[in-house]
Automatic annotation (TrEMBL):
Species for this entry: Methylobacterium nonmethylotrophicum
GO biological process assignments: translation
Protein name (database record): Large ribosomal subunit protein uL4
Pfam families: Ribosomal_L4
Function according to Swiss-Prot or TrEMBL: One of the primary rRNA binding proteins, this protein initially binds near the 5'-end of the 23S rRNA. It is important during the early stages of 50S assembly. It makes multiple contacts with different domains of the 23S rRNA in the assembled 50S subunit and ribosome.
């Protein structure tokens, strides 16, 4: 499909032919949900842990004899029912990551790109460069395109001035094309792709 290219100054810069197999799919919410869940689970630290019975610094001697006291039968004071004892079935250090097939991840990324294109939230720019790394200058350019909440995908290498200027803008993310992912695409209102990013994505999915 044919798509107009613009600049960050709001001027026209020609057009580009977007691949229907990448930007023209009917978005599937189930694929997007599976991929976002996989991403968020994978980045969880999983370092939460409580002490098990073997880790409690307390004597394991039997509290009192088994019979004849009239009290309940108890063993060590590290049991969960006692104050200062272990926690029964508490969390342990583990990985929350789970597997998701590579083909499903690739398909989800194509559906995320198609979702932005279908909802008119996709913008293609000629380049993402800045002569000086000034946030004020970049904010004025973004204002011409009404970009207040956006993910900007550049080429294989980002322009350092552009990345530095965008770093201070809230709700603006800048990533190289190899860092594009479903979660970041969906969490921002607009998706901005450079011409180099479009070429790299089409080469990636061939």
């Amino acid at each position: 499909m044919k798509f107009e290219i613009t600049t960050f100054d709001g001027a026209e810069a020609g057009s580009v032919e977007l691949d229907e197999a990448i930007f023209g799919l009917e978005p599937r919410a189930d694929l997007l949900q599976r991929c976002v869940r996989w991403q968020l689970a994978k980045r969880q630290a999983g370092t939460h842990q409580t002490k098990q019975r073997g880790e409690i610094a307390r004597t394991t001697k039997k509290l009192y004899k088994q019979k004849g006291t009239g009290n309940a039968r108890h063993g060590a004071a590290s049991a969960p029912q006692f104050r200062g004892g272990a926690r029964a079935h508490g969390p342990v250090t583990r990985s929350h990551a789970h597997d998701l097939p590579k083909k499903v991840r690739a398909l989800a990324l194509r559906h995320a790109l198609s979702a932005k294109a279908k909802s008119a939230a996709l913008i293609v720019v000629d380049d993402a460069r800045l002569e000086e790394g000034k946030t004020k200058v970049l904010a004025e350019r973004f204002g011409k395109l009404s970009l207040s909440n956006a993910l900007i995908i550049g080429g294989a290498e980002l322009d350092q001035n552009f990345a530095r200027a965008a770093r201070n803008l809230p709700q603006i993310d800048v990533l190289p094309v190899q860092g594009i992912n479903v979660y970041d695409i969906l969490r921002r209102e607009k998706l901005v792709l450079t011409r180099a990013a479009v070429d790299a994505l089409e080469a990636r999915f061939k």
